[in-house]
Structure formats: C-alpha cells, structure tokens
Design goal:
3 helices; 6-stranded mixed β-sheet; two-stranded antiparallel sheet; about 160 residues
C-alpha cells in the first residue's frame, strides 16, 4: 500500500511540474510575441519616416511645379535640388494644412510633425510634437543660402 501511495505522489508531482513548465512557456511566448510586434511596428515607423524625409527633402514633388497650383499635389517635395529647400514650395507646403499634407505624404496611419529651424529660429512648424514614443529624424538642408535643420517625427 505504501508503494502505491508513493507512485500516486510521484504522478501528482510530475503533473504539477509539467503544468508549471507549460504555464511558464506560454507566459514567455506571450512576452516574446509582444516585444516582437513592438519592434516590428517601430521598424515600420522608422522606414516610413526615412521615406518621408527623402520625399520631402530630396525631391521636387509630383508635379514638379506643384506649388504653382491651388490644389493638393500627388506627391509633396520641398526641394528645388536635393536638400536645397525652395522658398516657394515651403510657403505652399505651409498653406496646404495638416490634413492635406498627411494625405499627400501617405502617412495617414501615423501622426506627423515637421519643423524647419534656421539660426535657432523656427521657420515652419506643422503638427503637434509627440510627448510619447515617436521616431524623430533630423536632417541638415540648405535654405536661403544657409544651413537649416529639419526635424520630422512620426508616431501612432
């Protein structure tokens, strides 16, 4: 009778140990999955931010003279040449408004912030700066024959 009780206790101990290991595996799996999805989302936002910066700062836009029309362009670009910001395009960019800029830049899933600073003076600021987790990108550009800084931020 004593041997039967020991076998039953061993079985209960083995089942208990198996359940503990199974629960710890699933908890670890969920934590890993959350971290992976956060990293994937962050990488996606970083990619969109880089593409947006290249689009705005290195291309003239589509059509190239979009600032001459009173409509939203197909693709917004602020440069007359790579990283040389056109004053006329920048003025048209400011006048487009936040909603039109978001639609023309295809960042509709994300919030957007744009800041152009020259000589520690804010020239253009569009959108609201995020106090949370945002992907911030800073680039140097040429504006009115001098170096200026552009900050572009995206976040969900």
């Amino acid at each position: 009778m004593l041997k039967a009780q020991i076998v039953i206790m061993d079985l209960f101990f083995a089942v208990f140990l198996f359940i503990v290991l199974l629960v710890s595996f699933f908890v670890s799996w969920n934590v890993y999955q959350l971290r992976f999805s956060d990293a994937l989302m962050r990488n996606e936002v970083e990619l969109y931010t880089l593409q947006l910066a290249d689009q705005l700062l290195k291309s003239p836009g589509v059509p190239e003279n979009w600032e001459d029309f009173n409509s939203t362009p197909d693709l917004i670009g602020l440069s007359s040449k790579s990283i040389i910001i056109s004053d006329k395009k920048l003025e048209a960019f400011k006048n487009l408004g936040y909603a039109n800029i978001v639609n023309s830049t295809n960042v509709g899933l994300y919030n957007f912030y744009f800041l152009l600073v020259k000589d520690n003076v804010s020239i253009v600021e569009i959108g609201n700066y995020s106090s949370g987790q945002a992907v911030n990108l800073r680039r140097n550009v040429i504006y009115k024959d001098g170096v200026a800084n552009v900050e572009i931020s995206l976040w969900k």
